[in-house]
Amino acid sequence: MGVGRKYTQKDIAAAAKVHPSTVSLALSNSPTLADKTKERILKVAKEMGYQPDPFLSQLATYKNLGRQGIFRGTLAFLINRHPLEKSPNARPFKQYLVGSSKQAETYGYQLKVFDFDRSKITGSRLRQIMIARGVKGILLCPQPRGIDRIDDFDFRNFSCVSFGYSLCNPRFHVVNNHQFHAAMLCMQNLIRVGCKRIGFAIPQFHDNRANNNYLAGYMTHLAKNPNLPTLPAFTGDSFSLNSFSEWFNSIKPDGLLTVPYRLPEFLQQMNVDTTQACKLAIPTLNDSEGAWSGIDEDGEAIGAAAVDLLVSMIRRGEMGIPAKPSSLLFEGVWVENESFIK
């Protein structure tokens, strides 16, 4: 079988002695079909050399959308709360949320924010609520500081995509800004404006959440530019002015790859001129950071891409924890203010 003829789902149904609709369920990995039946049908399809027609698949998707109306289901935007967080941001990761919500609507889904606050709800109860509200897929926000796993929620029967690398267990497919590229681009621009002693001042906890991609980009660029000295990275307490100033005064950098909070404030308190004496490059800028130069990651585009991936997984019936998680990375754009080139 499978030579000289293009087989259809009806042919598979006849060979497997099932209804064509059952074949359709098996090929879409539907959870409503028994595993034994699904495996038997897939084996028959493979033996016959069956290959789906992408144009017919697209037409079927269009017909199903029209049959079900505009609303097809709900996607969850899951915010995992830290148990010790005293004043949580009601809607963190605003750009991801806006981009995800807009893109979900184009597929006929609504995006619903779910707060996983364990002082108010258990993982099993939250799962029940999601199922009752027709949630088919979950977008997982970056995890709060100090949290890198979720052990008290059953992700089976949900398609899942994670923003960034902060969630280590379970591992899902990731959509994120290209942090290694962002660090490399920052280094390139610091060198362009004449910096010769570039320090790395991204707190360890922050770089760890980025899978150490910022430090990797920094070190790689130094390796490609042997004329630049390799300075000790800042490993002190990012909440301590004394710790930071001691490090800064010991290495005397004229440029810094750093984060947009706390450390730039320390520099101001130390009366360091960040337009002349030490220029700053931020590998991940937010809306409120127009005073700094760095990488605009375009969070809305990342949010939209996460929905694209999630919807494609739902259509393929991919649920639970993937055997081989993949990453989809977006290169950001360098933006600078006038003071950077003075």
UniProtKB/TrEMBL annotation:
Residues 7-61 form the HTH lacI-type domain. This is LacI family DNA-binding transcriptional regulator. InterPro entries: HTH_LacI (IPR000843), Lambda_DNA-bd_dom_sf (IPR010982), Peripla_BP_I (IPR028082). One of its GO terms (molecular function) is DNA binding. Keywords: DNA-binding, Transcription, Transcription regulation. PANTHER family: HTH-TYPE TRANSCRIPTIONAL REGULATOR GALS (PTHR30146:SF109), LACI-RELATED TRANSCRIPTIONAL REPRESSOR (PTHR30146). The keyword DNA-binding applies. Pfam families: LacI (PF00356). SUPFAM superfamilies: lambda repressor-like DNA-binding domains, Periplasmic binding protein-like I. It comes from the Bacteria.
